[in-house]
Design brief:
The chain is mainly α. It has a single domain (about 1-230), classed as MetI-like fold (Orthogonal Bundle). The chain is built from eleven helices and no strands. Helix 1 (about 1-15) packs across helix 11 and helix 10 packs antiparallel against helix 11 (about 200-230). It is globular.
Length: about 230
């Protein structure tokens, strides 16, 4: 028990003292996950809107596939990206393996189906009266789509936040494609695993405190967004 208290005390000191290594790892984690979220949102939201607003062939099948992919095992995604970016892979010439770009790619793949599925659910959950009223008032298809998406904005925001929460806590895929290289591809989750194995519990606990703090913030924001959306309805 005394060992735990001492380790926790040193961990808090690292956090409050803005330890240089700790800060670099935390900022890299936010950078990788943030860029992955931006890419997944920029590509996933249009797909969700297309599935929710247009009657396209195999729409039901596509929705089912994206819902299934929400539970993608991270290690499987990591293996897929690794094979894609390895020297013998089709994109090996880019030299992206064991770089932050490979980690961003893996996290984008993981968050993409989450954003598509949750944003699609938010869009199709909008009251049909919105569409009917817009058409009655002479709105174009683009204006109708904009009105529906605006009405579903809280659900869409919830989907995006959920996607961010998923990638921030991810370890399997980025460990495979990033290599956990000190000062280059080492992020919070991979460092916690490594430092725990090494017995350096102070740094692992310090990163754990930061990660838990970020998770708390993400869940608090998600709760507020969902609450605001519920009140609006």
């Amino acid at each position: 028990m005394e060992f735990l208290l001492i380790s926790f005390s040193k961990a808090v000191s690292l956090v409050l003292g803005f330890d240089r290594e700790l800060l670099h790892i935390s900022l890299l984690s936010l950078k990788v996950s943030g860029l992955a979220l931006i890419i997944a949102t920029a590509t996933g939201l249009p797909v969700a809107a297309l599935l929710g607003l247009k009657k396209i062939p195999f729409r039901g099948l596509l929705v089912s596939i994206f819902n299934t992919l929400m539970g993608l095992p991270p290690v499987v995604v990591g293996l897929f990206v690794y094979l894609l970016l390895s020297r013998s892979g089709p994109l090996g010439f880019l030299g992206l393996l064991y770089t932050p770009s490979a980690m961003i790619t893996a996290q984008t793949i993981l968050s993409f189906p989450i954003i598509v599925s949750l944003c699609h659910a938010a869009i199709v959950g909008v009251d049909p009266v919105i569409r009917q009223a817009s058409l009655t008032l002479g709105a174009t298809e683009a204006q109708v789509a904009a009105a529906i998406i605006r009405e579903a904005r809280y659900g869409i925001m919830s989907g995006i936040i959920a996607g961010f929460g998923r990638v921030m806590a991810e370890i399997g895929a980025i460990l495979i494609v990033g290599g956990n290289i000190a000062g280059y591809t080492r992020v919070m989750t991979t460092t916690i695993a490594l430092e725990t194995d090494k017995g350096n519990f102070e740094l692992a606990l310090a990163l754990g405190i930061i990660l838990l703090g970020l998770s708390l913030i993400i869940n608090a924001v998600l709760h507020l967004v969902q609450k605001k959306g519920t009140i609006k309805r």
